[in-house]
């Protein structure tokens, strides 16, 4: 450091010399020995026209004067305006190669006020080892690079050059009004500070420090932006060729709330023999750093956060190297579109909800994507933000294109105490504070957790749902994915506008509202599902389907792509209105399933008659299209299939007006009169009521999905909170038991938070139980003939049972372990006559 303080002593002698009419001042220039400094006075270029002017040294007239360390000269000019003719160069060599390397704050020595009033250039020439990094620091004012030929307003400029071996490389010329705060080089650096003659100044405006490590490139130029602004920067030697196979880096420090865009103003590339000329960016938020661009590419814009940019040369063709050069601009401004809007997401009342705003998983390969950030109140911005329950969050966005983000939310509704949740229902709706975000909702997922083997769930949509199939795709803006809470399997996607009245699911499930288009927002008012806790089911799921007359209802087995889960069972309760008949059609002739263990079968049961058909899905041809006059069950139970022979069944139901069999309608037509109709309706109602009474005890039959140890057929009341130990046992649940509590008592109050009490009892025919499955082990004959006199729900255990395939008698050896009382009373029931 001391070396910089060995100043040149130049005294203004104050002597007035008369030379004709002109007055000049004499100056004494003293360069201390060992200062490593020289002072040179020489003619400016171009030399001024007109009468010549001389430096008068010891009465000699010269046009150039070099003062070396240890020398002392006294000079005077022969003209009154020497600044027009002469310039002054003060050069200091700093040698870091041979030990002492005096660095630190760079002083202007001598102060300009003590120098002849000539344009001055202070030159600091630092030589260092290749392994030593040198850093020039420019505290305020920072520097602004100018193109060759450009001038600085105040006449003050810095020319900075580096060195590659013996070759000088021009890094750039800078004015003191810009963003460049540091310039790092290795192997040495030369700074020339040009000051016009009229300016007096006593500081150099920069520091030099040495870093023990090499920067491994020609230079690094750091720009710091305090606010909005721009910087134009150039490759070394611009507009001449960038040195062959070199690397130069620009670093940019950008305030968090601003955005930076790079544009290339002027460039050319050389003829590369090996490697490729390119620019590489490190951009916060980019997952593919470094982002590599060709010089001809469109460069990144709207980058948030600090970034850096490197120019990499190539091995050039020696014959015709061409010229690599680059002039570019960095523009820093406020984010243009999303402005400074803030959004409040109040999760303070939530207990178990989280919301993540994260980058959409778009595939862009190596294509560049600018940073896209979510900022929390505190202005900490990140690409992936998760907001948790229990507090209120204020967020804003720093993102050029908000469609690159999406929101995923998850809320858990769990039942801890069955007695408590039993009567509860919850509305599943996406909260408004998510819909108001400028970012698209992707998934809103409700995890519905119930105590194992104690409770199940019924999901009731405000409007009937359609199952997504290839044959009838869900083309709505959103769908519900109903699946297991662990994601191990799913029941499929369901969207509005179908025939599914409700879905009963056995176990912990998740319902995910997934959006597909942004028009979701327009349809959002129609979204609503209600979920209620019901007694435990034995089947994986039961779908209640009420087709309308206008369209086919396509239905398919759960977990379509991967195959229905092993040893699970699903039922569809398909309503057939009185005046209609239903056609059930299977898509394929055979199911194609191959069982490793257990058996896969299907039961179709008319609910009124209890007529049951049983098909082995392994062996039998699936039923031909068949007509059903009454509501019926379809039950499909899976075995443990061979992995490549999974069970997937697709079927559809169509309704057509019933052709015969409708004396009521005929009579109505004949009678014609309104009165008669009214009477008829009355009769029907009475009949219906009577039937209801007879049917008092409609039951929903439910059995264990893992059916290998089935199953007595006795109805059994569902014992609340019963122990699990008989969970393998077939249970029959009274319909009133299942839903009665929901009908009778409103669900005011809830174990989480009362939300909406919208449970709507299903009004259609729902009295019968799904068919009970045959034992899996049994290789009994399959197709079943029905007996219209069969008892509903729980067929008799008697040997006289007319089915050729009967459910195992509880005294079968294999069923010894059952503890179900055999003689539990059963409601006798006759099918109501039409
Ligand atoms: C001194 O610098 C000014 C610009 O700052 C320039 O116009 C002038 O020609 C220079 N003088 C000489 C002698 O080079
Ligand atoms: C330059 O050095 C001086 C003295 O060492 C120090 O006070 C100043 O903060 C330094 N400036 C920078 C930008 O490092
Ligand atoms: C600083 O730069 C800006 C734009 O680059 C210019 O408008 C302004 O006049 C400059 N100020 C000085 C003192 O050079
Ligand atoms: C440099 O000049 C400023 C005023 O321009 C003055 O305050 C300061 O003391 C001077 N510093 C030195 C080291 O001469
Ligand atoms: C800078 O140079 C000095 C003198 O050569 C040396 O003592 C010091 O360790 C160097 N600093 C670094 C960071 O290399
Ligand atoms: C690019 O630089 C070249 C050489 O300096 C110049 O001739 C040309 O006009 C520049 N082009 C633009 C668009 O500035
Ligand atoms: C550029 O930025 C990346 C990431 O911040 C950093 O790892 C790398 O060292 C930087 N390179 C230079 C030369 O600044
Ligand atoms: C948002 O920007 C407007 C003007 O662009 C400004 O008036 C307002 O104060 C800003 N709001 C915040 C919260 O920064
Ligand atoms: C965002 O963060 C969440 C939680 O840490 C993580 O699950 C998710 O994968 C992240 N998303 C991306 C795109 O990195
Ligand atoms: C910003 O908004 C303007 C008009 O409002 C639009 O033309 C432009 O495409 C938007 N830019 C981005 C990146 O969204
Ligand atoms: C459902 O989730 C609850 C709570 O996490 C857990 O206790 C229960 O065992 C789960 N049920 C099943 C069948 O895994
Ligand atoms: C969506 O599907 C329904 C029938 O499934 C059809 O009527 C409607 O035109 C479809 N809409 C679009 C946009 O494809």
UniProtKB/TrEMBL annotation:
Keywords: Membrane, Signal, Transmembrane, Transmembrane helix
Entry annotated with the keyword Zinc-finger: no
Domain CDCP1 first CUB positions: 28-96
Record's signal peptide: 1-26
Segments forming domain CDCP1 third and sixth CUB: 217-320, 538-652
UniProt domain CDCP1 fourth CUB: residue ranges: 343-430
Domain CDCP1 second and fifth CUB, first and last residues per copy: 108-210, 442-518
Biased composition (Basic and acidic residues): 809-819
Alphabetized InterPro entries for the sequence: CDCP1, CDCP1_CUB_3rd_6th, CUB_CDCP1_1st, CUB_CDCP1_2nd_5th, CUB_CDCP1_4th
Transmembrane residue ranges: 664-687
Region named Disordered: 762-834
Protein's UniProt name: CUB domain-containing protein 1
């Amino acid at each position: 450091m001391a070396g910089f303080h060995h100043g040149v002593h130049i005294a203004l002698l104050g002597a007035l010399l008369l030379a004709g009419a002109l007055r000049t001042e004499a100056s004494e220039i003293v360069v201390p020995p060992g200062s490593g400094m020289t002072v040179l006075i020489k003619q400016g270029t171009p030399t001024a026209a007109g009468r010549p002017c001389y430096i008068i040294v010891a009465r000699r007239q010269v046009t150039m004067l070099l003062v070396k360390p240890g020398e002392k000269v006294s000079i005077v000019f022969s003209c009154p305006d020497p600044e027009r003719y002469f310039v002054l160069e003060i050069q200091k060599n700093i040698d870091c190669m041979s030990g002492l390397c005096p660095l630190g704050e760079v002083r202007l020595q001598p102060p300009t006020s003590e120098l002849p009033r000539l344009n001055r250039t202070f030159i600091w020439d630092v030589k260092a080892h290749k392994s030593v990094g040198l850093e020039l620091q420019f505290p305020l004012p920072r520097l602004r690079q100018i193109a060759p030929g450009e001038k600085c307003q105040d006449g003050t400029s810095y020319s900075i050059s580096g060195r590659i071996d013996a070759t000088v490389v021009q890094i750039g010329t800078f004015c003191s009004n810009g963003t460049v705060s540091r310039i790092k080089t290795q192997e040495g650096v030369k700074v020339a500070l040009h000051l016009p003659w009229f300016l007096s100044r006593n500081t150099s405006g920069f520091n030099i420090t040495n870093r023990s490590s090499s920067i491994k490139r020609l230079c690094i130029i750091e720009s710091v932006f305090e606010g909005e602004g721009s910087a134009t920067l150039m490759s070394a030697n611009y507009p001449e060729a960038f040195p062959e196979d070199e690397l130069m880096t620009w670093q940019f420090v950008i305030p968090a709330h601003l955005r930076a865009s790079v544009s290339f103003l002027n460039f050319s590339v050389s003829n590369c023999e090996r490697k490729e000329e390119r620019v590489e960016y490190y951009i916060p938020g980019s997952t593919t750093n470094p982002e590599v661009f060709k010089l001809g590419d469109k460069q990144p814009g709207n980058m948030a956060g600090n970034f850096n940019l490197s120019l990499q040369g190539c091995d050039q063709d020696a014959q015709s190297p061409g010229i690599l050069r680059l002039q570019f601009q960095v523009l820093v401004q406020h984010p243009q579109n999303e402005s400074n809007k803030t959004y409040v997401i109040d999760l303070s009342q939530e207990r178990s909800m989280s919301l993540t705003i994260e980058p959409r998983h778009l595939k862009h390969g190596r294509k560049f994507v600018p940073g896209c950030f979510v900022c929390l109140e505190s202005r900490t911005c990140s690409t992936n933000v998760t907001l948790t329950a229990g507090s209120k969050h204020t967020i804003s966005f720093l993102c050029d294109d908000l469609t690159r983000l999406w929101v995923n939310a998850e809320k858990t509704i769990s039942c801890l105490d069955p007695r408590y949740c039993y009567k509860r229902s919850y509305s599943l709706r996406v909260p408004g504070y998510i819909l108001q975000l400028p970012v698209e909702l992707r998934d809103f997922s409700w995890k519905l957790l119930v105590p194992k083997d104690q409770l199940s769930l019924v999901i009731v949509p405000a409007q009937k749902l359609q199952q997504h199939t290839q044959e009838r795709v869900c083309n709505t803006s959103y769908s519900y994915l109903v699946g297991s809470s662990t994601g191990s399997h799913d029941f499929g996607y369901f969207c509005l506008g179908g025939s599914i009245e409700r879905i009963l699911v056995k176990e912990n499930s998740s319902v995910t509202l997934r959006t597909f288009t942004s028009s979701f927002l327009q349809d959002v008012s129609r979204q609503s599902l209600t979920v209620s806790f019901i007694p435990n089911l034995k089947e994986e799921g039961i779908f209640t389907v009420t087709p309308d007359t206008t369209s086919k209802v396509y239905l398919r087995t759960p977990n379509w792509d991967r195959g229905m889960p092993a040893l699970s069972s699903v039922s569809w309760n398909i309503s057939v209105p009185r005046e209609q008949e239903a056609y059930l059609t299977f898509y394929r002739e055979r199911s194609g399933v191959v069982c490793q263990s257990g058996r896969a079968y299907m039961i179709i049961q008319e609910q009124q008659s209890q007529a049951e058909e049983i098909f082995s899905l392994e062996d039998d041809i699936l039923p031909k299209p068949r007509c059903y006059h009454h509501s019926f069950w379809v039950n499909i139970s899976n075995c443990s299939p061979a992995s490549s022979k999974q069970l997937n069944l697709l079927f559809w139901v169509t309704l057509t007006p019933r052709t015969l069999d409708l004396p009521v309608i005929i009579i109505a037509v004949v009678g014609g009169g309104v009165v008669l109709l009214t009477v008829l309706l009355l009769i029907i109602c009475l009949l219906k009521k009577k039937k209801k009474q007879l049917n008092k005890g409609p039951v929903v039959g439910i059995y264990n999905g893992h059916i290998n140890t089935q199953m007595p057929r006795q109805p059994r009341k569902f014992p609340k909170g019963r122990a699990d130990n008989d969970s393998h046992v077939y249970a029959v649940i009274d319909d009133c038991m299942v839903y009665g509590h929901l009908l009778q008592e409103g669900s005011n109050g809830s174990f989480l938070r009362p939300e909406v009490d919208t449970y709507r009892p299903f009004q259609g025919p729902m009295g019968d139980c799904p068919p009970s499955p045959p034992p899996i082990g049994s290789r009994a004959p399959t197709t079943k003939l029905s007996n219209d006199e069969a008892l509903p729900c729980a067929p008799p255990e008697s040997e006289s049972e007319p089915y050729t395939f009967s459910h195992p008698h509880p005294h079968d050896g294999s069923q010894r372990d059952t503890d179900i009382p055999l003689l539990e009373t059963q409601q006798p029931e006759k099918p109501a006559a039409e």
